[in-house]
Amino acid sequence: MFFQINPSNGIPVYEQVSRQIMFAVASGSILPGEMIPSVRELARELAINPNTVARAFRDLQDQNILQTVRGTGVAVTHGARAKCISARTRVIRDRLRDVLAEARQSQLDEAELQAIIDAEFENSKKRKH
Amino acid sequence: MNPVIQIKHVTRRFGNKVALDNISLDVPRGCVFALLGENGAGKTTAIRNLLGLDRVSAGTIEVLGMNPQKHGTAVRRQVGYVPDTPALYDWMTVSEAGWFTAGFYADDFLPNFSRLCEQFELPRSQKIKTLSKGGRAKVVLALAMAHEPELLIMDEPTSGLDTLVRRKFLESMIDVAAAGRTVLLSSHQIPEVERVADLVAIIHEGHLMVCDHLENLKREIERWVVSFDGTELNLPPFEAEVISHAGPQRKRQQLIVRNPAPDALWRLRDHPGISEVEVHTPTLEEIFVAFLSNSPDAGGRPINDGLRSPADQSSGGSIT
Amino acid sequence: MSASSVRPKAGPSLLPAHPTLTSVWCRMGWKELRQNTPLLGIFFAGLLTSLAISTLAGQLFQVAPSDIADFWFGTIYVFIPVFSLAIGVFIFAPEKENRTSQFLGILPMRSGQIVFIKLVIGLLTVAIFIFLGVLLQRFGQIFVGESSTATIANETAAFERSLTPSSLFGQWQWQATPVVSCITLTMECYCWGAICSLVCKRAIFAAVLAGTCFALASWGFPTAIGAALAQRSTDGPPSRRLFSDSFYTIFLISKIATYAAMGLGLAHLGSRWLGHSPNNEFPDWLGRVAAKPRERIESSGDTSWGVSADRPFINSRIYSSLIWQSVRQFGTTFFFTLLGAAPFLFGSVLIAATVSEFQIDHLFVYSCLAVVLVVIPLIASMFVFIVDHQDRNYRFFQQHREFGRKLWLARLLPAALVTLVCGLLLSMGLVVLGWQLLTASETALVFRFALFPAIVVFCAFAIGQFNSMFLRSGVFVVVSVIVMSGILFAGICGLCFLDPTLVAFLLPVPLAMLAITWWRAPHLLAESNPMANLVLPWLSLGIVVVVSVTALSWFRVASVPQTDFSLEKHLSSYVALDESRNQRDAQVNPIFERAILLRDAANEMVATEAVGEAYNLRLFTWPTPDYARSFDIENPAPLRQFVSRNQDSLKLLALANEQPATSPPVLDPRSRSRRVEQIARISLLISAQATLAQWDGDLERALGYWLQLKRFTEQYDVESTNALLGLLRWSEFPGQSPEFIKQAIKAATITPDQWCTQTEYLTQSRRLDLANWYEGLISGQSVLDPPLGIQFNYGARENKKQSFLLIPWELERSKRWTFLTLEELSFQRSQRRGLILEGSMPDHVLNLDSSLYDTYQAAAVSVHYPNHRDYDEFFSIRDNERWGDFIYMLRQIQTYHYVRVRMALNGWKLEYGQYPDQLAALVPDYFESLPLDVLYGIEFAYSPTGLDNKVCVSGSGWKSRRGPDQQEWEVIKLVYESMIDSGHPFLLPWSMARKPTLASCNVMDEPNIETFKCYDYSGPGLSTVGHNLQDYELPSIDSNDD
Q1: Looking at the predicted structure, is the pLDDT value of residue B96 above 70?
Q2: pLDDT exceeds cutoff 70 at C536
Q3: How many angstroms separate the CA atoms of B115 and C815, rounded?
Q4: Which residues pair with B66 in a beta bridge?
Q5: C-chain residues within 8 Å CB-CB of A40?
Q6: Contact predicate C265/C213, CB 8 Å
Q7: Which pLDDT tens digit goes with each residue over C797-849?
Q8: Mean pLDDT for chain C overall
Q9: Taking CA atoms, what residue in B is nearest to C98?
Q10: CA torsion angle for C198, C204, C209, C214 (degrees, to 10)?
Q11: Are C731 and C890 in contact (CB under 8 A)?
């Protein structure tokens, strides 16, 4: 599934896995009802501990984003997309909050901060196209 | 469930030198247990004792419910071992090596071995002495896994190997763990360990410095960088377990702390003379170095009790 | 955990099935055999090589086939234990060297089980060698004409009879039966190899240590202790005698103890082998010590090492570092050198210290020391490059390419110093020894001999360093060194005794070894091309060897005077005939007879044992009419052609006759072996001329030729009895006259210098000693005054029943022989022989000399002598090496006397038409004084009309296949049948046997028999006379013990 896991960046690995699955669901790369690779396959692909993958799956199952299909494996639940989108939004908001907090701490002027935000926003639009 | 490996107060001396000093740890079933330590810390000695190839001076060991010192043969029958610097009969071909080893195990050794060779893309009829280092390592791994052992012990298996081979080793470890069997890994490749390990034990000069779930360690340990702006360069007291303290009496000091009290950080930040405290999550490598800089002879505190179970089994949790 | 698996797996509670034993044995067997195959290959290759070389050398130097066969057997008997030792070492040490013991340690098998399997499989391999050895022992004589194994059996018998310690060494080695010794030797070597390889990490250490342990513990100690005990048993009064049984007891106990210790050691070490912690391995500290010098070199290095262009070859800083490292590295391994040489050192010191007690010759002591001082440089040079190979130190030196030859020099230096020291000690020892043995006039000999140790030691050094450079595995090095040094030393020693100048052809080989290592050193260091580094050196060495041997053979062959090849071919077909086992047929074959005559002159007669027997028979056999007829040559034409074609040799002979007798310069001065060949050719020519003269009817000229042959062979120190045979035949030739015979008898004199010494190195002083005896013997005296009587103590040794038979000497002096009847005519040593004094059987035994003692293996035979002075003097030389020379001299003299007496009898017959009644009749006409038996001073046994009964004569010294004595009895029966029936006289000297043994004089207990019978023969017909012991006055016996 070509996720990228960085065990050293401070975010727990299982959380990285959950997040990336959710983002994939949110962006539509994985459709509801589609099968996800098994714990073993995903662990092999990502070269991480299967327990970690299992934990991520469990989390996602608890949030009802994934469900076990008897005999076959794990699949995305229907209606998961909306949850994932909102989760993704929350993640982005948390990140922005952290950045703003840091900007505050570094005593950046509000105007400067706004200018930076606008500039980056413009740049991102360009990159998208 | 009984732990797969139980080491209780084991000491091993070689003459005057103490290789293992009163070590106790348990390896639960089905996990990937990483043993970290610098060269000569005692990892290989511990592993050899687990296999019954060495005798402890004091303490007891139990592997899969058996005492390896007494029932080494039975232990080795159920344990797969990949040694550091493995030795093979160079004149044998890969398939001959498999056939030879198959004679000592049960009947389905050979089919498994063939399957593993295919998986590792090993040429069956090539002599071992003509194989590259990576090829040899693969042969050793295949031989160790072919009898489907309950416990797979790997002693620095990927040192000196290229990335692709290392990847194969990782995948095999993951397969074994996914099948519910246990892996004991002793390695220097800390980033690799960071990916796959469930539990981590650090041995330093024969002492067990820490033995805990990697999750717990990562969650509980923080790296603080303290910047001073005045002439007062001493740290005020605060409530946290300091694992290492780098650069004392300097303008910027780094602390690796564990389980800081909720307000310890703010206390520091509020302290006059301290301009800033940066908080980072340390990598496993940083944690490792921190524990090792804490020499037990210099008054550090090794850990002698067993591991703790991961704190949040019931996390379910929110994604934050 | 809800992990999903691909495959169902067994639960952790199920144990995996145990492997079957057969599968384990099968695998281990396959692995061991695959691993040991190179060693077996080397074994057979080395064996075949040495056999091929020895055959080649034998052809080159015309060594008798039986000698070559002896060498083959000797080689194989040496190879078998050596290779079983190598297999023992190969079981464990290479696994340690290559660390594959770690692999075995991981397998789920107990260490003890794996060790046991390995040992058994190795044992099966060793069993091949044991089987080979046993086969050779039992049936080796099938492959060879003569039975060298019977020789060994006879030697064993001879050893067992004498009780001197040096014979006990051999006795130990062969034990009860050679088969047993073969098995135990091989097994012990194997076990020691296995134990030492369990202990040592490196194979070469294990090999050296195992050899030491074997030599000391299995061989040296029991022998030394047993010899000491046995020596005690021969000294001292009988009451303190421990008897040689004690030797066997000690031997058995020590063997059992050794085996028990080995078994325990193997079990203990084996159970701990695979579980061994690496830090505690035995010579690991050696590895660490050897590694330290590298650090110093690394630390002392500077950038100047890398610059090669303007640096001179001699750079003292580099050299000092390299030499320091070599010495450090060498020092630890030299410890093992000394360990390996320890048994020899120990043994030599022990022997030297107790030399007076054991009465061991200085030569033997020197030999032991020589072995030590040759083995030390051999082992030292073996270690020169081994450590570098096995530790891969070359990687370290490869950074600096210029090191190649400097490293070579530095590595060789310590070993070379050791070699130099040993060579000097060896040469000095020989010089010291020589001063004792030799007189001043032979100092030239001394210095010539002093060169030999230097050459041998140098060869040892060269061989060791060559093998250690070009072979990787330690055990291969040891084995290859043993093979090569064996060949080279045998070549040198053999050649030296034949002809010292030939050594110059062998010297290129060790020099080439040094040159090749000098040449390949840089390439080896660079590890440039492994195949080239393996193949090129051996190929080069092979080329050098081939060239040397070719040069040698060309040199040797080139200047030997050619003889007529057609006659030679003729002769060789006779030779083939001659070597048939069935001598009965050969006797009446006229062609055979002629061939024997000619071959006598060619000195080939004594080359083979079978022909030697025939030769002896010819000498002492009176010719039957058939025999005499068969002597006629039907067609002398080939002989004439032979003579005419070889005029060169005749010219040579003429020149030779003009030279003074003491120096033989006219024959080839360079090579003794070629001189011998020339002598053989010339002898052939002279005898051909004599034969032709006889055929032409010119008997006087023929006599001249026979005398010329006699002088010629005596002058050149070759056996001259063939000339005597010619004289005998000449005297029986039709047309003979008494005057000629008297002339011949007068001319056939012997002088002290003229009897053959057989070996060139018999020094002057020894000749002079024997000459002291000689003077008296020539003038007709005997060695001893006639004894008073011969007492037989017979009876089986086991029940110690002793019976006595005293035969008064007067009977013998009066030329009446004593015939003793035998209950059993079987002469097997192991059977009990009883002497029955009653009963009349048609076969009689004529006891001519004390050789009967051999066959009866009497517990003691006493010969009572009235004159102790002679006796003491005589027996004082019995126990040293001069005894053989003395006996040889006696035999020579005896033969001369015999021939003269027989010629005289022939002359008498011509004069008076019949043979004289008594030998005394010959005195005024033919002899001034009648020749007497050399040993006893009595007249020869003589009967003018022969014997009308079958006579069985026992005499020792004839070899046979089925047992030492049985066959010879049959052969002798044959001989005398012809003598008896033909109506010819019966003439036989008393001490006829080649090796008369004299009994030691022991205290005689009271005889406890009263009557005995002896058969007197004093004329035609046989009468039985009974005698009572009381009829004879027994001499006083109280002062006759040692």
Answers
A1: yes
A2: yes
A3: 100
A4: B63
A5: 3-6
A6: no
A7: 333 333 333 344 443 333 222 222 222 222 222 222 222 222 222 222 333 33
A8: 61
A9: B87
A10: 90
A11: no
Nearest to C107 among B74, B87, B104 (CB): B104
**Which string of DSSP letters, residue by residue, matches C80-134?**
HHHHHHHHHHHHHHHHHHTTHHHHHHHSSS-HHHHHHHHHHHHHHHHHHHHHHHH
Q: Give the minimum alpha-carbon distance from C97 to chain B in angstroms, rounded to a whole number.
A: 11
- The one-letter amino acid at C6: V
Complete domains list, chain A, with CATH: 1-129 (1.10.10.10)
Q: Looking at the predicted structure, is the pLDDT value of residue C669 above 50?
A: no
Complex-level ipTM beyond the 0.95 threshold: no
**Cα–Cα dist A105/A99, whole Å:** 10
With CB atoms and an 8 Å threshold, state whether A43 touches B174.
yes
Chain C partners of B85 at a C-beta cutoff of 8 Å? 99
Say which amino acid occupies B188.
Answer: H
Give me the domains of chain B, ranges plus CATH numbers: 5-205 (3.40.50.300), 216-318 (3.30.70)
pLDDT score for C1008: 26
**C3 to A58: CB separation less than 8 angstroms, yes or no:** no
Q: Where are the domains of chain C?
A: 18-278, 567-834, 885-1041
Note if the pTM is more than 0.95.
no
Whether residues A47 and B167 touch (CB distance < 8 A) is answered with yes
**B286-300, C312-326, C816-830: range with lowest mean pLDDT:** C816-830
Whether chain C has a CB inside 8 Å of the CB on A103: the answer is no
Instruction: Name chain A contacts of C3, Cβ cutoff 8 Å.
Output: 39-40, 50, 54
Residue C878 has pLDDT above 80, yes or no: no
Most confident of C461-470, C498-507, C758-767, C896-905: C461-470
Say whether B205 sits in a helix, a strand or coil.
Answer: coil
Asked if C859 contacts C793 with a C-beta cutoff of 8 angstroms, the reply is yes
Check CB contact under 8 Å for A54 and C1.
yes
The rounded distance, in Å, linking the Cα atoms of C728 and C614 is 16
Q: Among all residues of chain A, which has the CA nearest to that of C7?
A: A40
Displacement of CA B66 from its chain's centroid (Å): 22
Residue at C706: amino acid letter:
W
Counting as contact any 3 or more CB pairs under 8 A, the partners of A are: B, C
Q: Which residues of A touch C4 (CB under 8 A)?
A: 38-40, 73
Instruction: Give the whole-angstrom CA distance, residue C1023 versus residue C3.
Output: 118
Cα(C568)–Cα(B239) distance, rounded to whole angstroms? 115
Chain B neighbors (3+ CB pairs < 8 Å): A, C
Min Cα separation A126/chain B (Å): 30
Cβ contacts below 8 Å, chain B against chain C, sum to 101
Which position has the higher pLDDT, C315 or B150? B150
